[in-house]
């Protein structure tokens, strides 16, 4: 017989009247009444918020109170709401190394050195370079070395960064960084 785990909800610290976070890593707004500048009263029904993913792989939500918006990492919201804060540990670690898995059982407080050691142990960082994994070895990478070479070839052929961005489905600034070698510099051209 399968064990059914119930989703638990707690107030988001600092946003107690407006938002809750769950033990599964979901975030929802609460029902509330808003007084508009023109004096009108508006009732807003609570809902589960859509989460975004940062280039680093971390999930985030935008919390808005009184017209002020704040971007918050979901793993930190879960940790602050469900796990007692340890004054000696200021970072949040994903036990399984999967940044999108924000269930409370997968989250723990850690020191900077514990977090870095865990990244080495799980292969998220390379021991040899001491830096984050490059290219396709990095989970946030969307372009293969051949894609990067194609971007550089498009630029050499005279295409604008805007045209390259549209063709490769990347932003114009990213097209510039790839073509100029500021990103993916480790990828060398193949000798013809």
- Report the top-level CATH class of the domain at 9-76: Alpha Beta
Strand content: 15-25%
CATH architecture of the domain at 9-76: Alpha-Beta Complex
What value does the Rg take, in angstroms? 22 Å
What's the CATH topology name of the domain at 9-76?
Homing Intron 3 (I-Ppo) Encoded Endonuclease, Chain A
Task: Give the overall form.
Answer: extended
Q: End-to-end span in angstroms?
A: 61 Å
Q: How many strands, which pairing sense, and closed or not: the largest β-sheet?
A: 3 strands, antiparallel
Spans of at least 5 consecutive residues whose pLDDT stays below 50 are none
> What would you call the structural class?
alpha+beta
Please report the number of helical segments.
5
Report on this structure.
- With 192 residues, this protein is an alpha+beta fold.
- Among the domains are: 9-76, Homing Intron 3 (I-Ppo) Encoded Endonuclease, Chain A (Alpha-Beta Complex), CATH 3.90.75; 142-180, no CATH class.
- It is 25% helix and 21% strand.
- It has five helices and ten strands, in the order E-E-E-E-E-E-E-E-H-E-E-H-H-H-H.
- It has helices at 74-82, 112-121, 145-156, 161-168, 172-180, and strands spanning 9-11, 19-22, 27-29, 32-35, 41-44, 52-53, 59-65, 68-73, 91-94, 107-110.
- The protein has a three-stranded antiparallel β-sheet with strand order 1-2-3, with helices on one face. A three-stranded antiparallel β-sheet has the order 6-7-8.
- A hairpin with a 7-residue loop joins strand 1 (9-11) and strand 2.
- The chain is extended, with a radius of gyration of 22 Å.
- It starts with 8 loop residues before the first strand and ends in a 12-residue tail after the last helix.
- The mean pLDDT is 83.
């Amino acid at each position: 017989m399968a064990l059914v785990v119930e989703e638990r909800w707690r107030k988001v610290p600092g946003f107690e009247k407006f938002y809750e976070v769950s033990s599964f890593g979901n975030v929802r707004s609460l029902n509330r009444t808003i007084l508009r500048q023109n004096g009108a009263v508006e009732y807003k029904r609570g809902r589960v918020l859509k989460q975004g993913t940062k280039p680093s792989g971390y999930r985030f939500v935008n919390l808005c109170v009184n017209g002020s918006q704040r971007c918050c990492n979901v793993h930190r919201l879960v940790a602050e709401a469900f796990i007692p804060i340890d004054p000696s540990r200021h970072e949040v670690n994903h036990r399984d190394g999967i940044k999108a898995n924000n269930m409370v059982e997968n989250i723990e407080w850690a020191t900077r050195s514990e977090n870095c050691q865990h990244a080495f142990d799980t292969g998220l960082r390379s021991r040899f370079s001491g830096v984050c994994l490059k290219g396709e070895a990095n989970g946030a990478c969307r372009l293969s070395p051949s894609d990067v070479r194609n971007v550089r070839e498009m630029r050499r052929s005279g295409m604008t960064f805007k045209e390259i961005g549209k063709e490769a489905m990347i932003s114009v600034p990213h097209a510039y960084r790839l073509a100029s070698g500021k990103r993916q510099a480790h990828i060398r051209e193949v000798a013809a």
